[in-house]
Specification:
Blueprint: H1 2-10, H2 13-18, E1 20-27, E2 35-36, H3 38-51, E3 53-62, E4 68-77, E5 80-90, E6 96-104, H4 106-131
Helix pairs in contact: 3-4
Length: 132
Amino acid sequence: MRAFREAVEAGDADAMEALLAEDVVFTSPVVFKPYAGKAITAAILRGVVRVFEDFRYVREINDTGGRDHALVFTARVGDREITGCDFLRLNADGLIEEFMVMVRPLSGAQALAEAMGARFDQILKEAEARSA
């Protein structure tokens, strides 16, 4: 999914949001319950952009049908190096309908959970404002 990759690499949150389906489901690497909806997913992505340092995609894997994509990345949260993958599934309109993130190692996932948790009240407020 070249458009999404380019939006993330450019730090263009509006372009990222434009590629999300209204009913997108985001599955976090550090929270049990998935988040449903474009507003909360976009707000989470904006939060992640603020938390990750030295983020870069290092590999892109696409299925031949064009609906499933995996974007492998590296980043840093504080002093923790993270390797992760964004798994994207597109709907019939070419928008992201499923967005699942996995990260490793455990210490990196814990650092990510702590950093995002510290910002989550603001993320929820942003999502509520965008939904209104």
